[in-house]
Amino acid sequence: MAISFKPTRMEMSRLKKRLSTATRGHKLMKDKRDETVRRFITFVRRNKELRERVEALMAEAMRSFVAAKAAMNRAAVDEALLVPAASAKIEISKGKVLSTEVPIFTYIPSATAELPYGVLGTAAELDAAVGKFSELMPLLIELAEVEKTCNLLADEIEKTRRRVNALEYVMIPQLQDAIHTISMKLDENERGNLTRLMKTKDMLKQKEEG
User: Fold this and answer.
1) What is the residue extent of each domain of the chain?
2) How far apart (Å, rounded) are the C-alpha atoms in residues 165 and 23?
């Protein structure tokens, strides 16, 4: 929507103040956008590292589990895993990346033994599989935190980009055009007044000479 204005010096002064504010805001928003992008890239890289570690560890755990099922009969594996596992807690809090609120997941492992069953009668492959799945838990929690942070930062980058574009391509050019129009109108009025003054002066001079 175009800016409405009156061609007066007071209005031009007001628009110049708005232009100065918009220009400063544009610079701050661009700086924020650039820094958010930099932080976003850092989290994306961390996300990639975590995902690769999780996938590799998951593959190892599944291989160990398949080997355990081959070394033990199915009933023995089921019986060992039916025993309640040790409990763990996840504390959820909030943090900030620049002005974006992000979640913080804190994994608190159980203080009890890692294996949920006795080692007698179970294969070492099953112990290895359970151990690897235990290692996976904190990585999965961190991966969830990092992925959610990436999503929130991506949304913030998009919102900031739209604001920067609105200032750069809409508001600032409109303010500049309005100021230019008022300036031209004031100059035109001033020339008109000067012309009328000169004509009046000439008429008075002619009258005095006549």
Assistant:
1) 9-202
2) 12
- The residue count for the chain: 210
12-40 pLDDT per residue, tens: 899 999 999 999 999 999 999 999 999 99
3-state secondary structure at position 96:
strand
CA dihedral 110, 111, 113, 115 (to 10 degrees): 10
Compute the C-alpha angle 81/110/58, nearest 5°: 55
172 and 23 Cβ atoms separated by less than 8 Å? yes
Quick one: which of 174, 171, 159 has its CA closest to 26?
Answer: 171
- pLDDT tens digits, residue range 133-191? 888 889 999 999 999 999 999 999 999 999 999 999 999 999 999 999 988 888 887 77
Are 138 and 50 in contact, with CB atoms under 8 Å apart? Answer: no
- How far apart are the C-alpha atoms of 167 and 157, rounded to whole Å? 15
The pTM (predicted TM-score) of the whole model is 0.77
Residues contacting 206, CB < 8 A, separation 6+: none
Instruction: Give me the CATH code for the 9-202 domain, please.
Output: 1.10.287.3240
Dump strand ranges (E) for the chain: 89-97, 100-108
Whether 172 contacts 27, CB under 8 Å: no
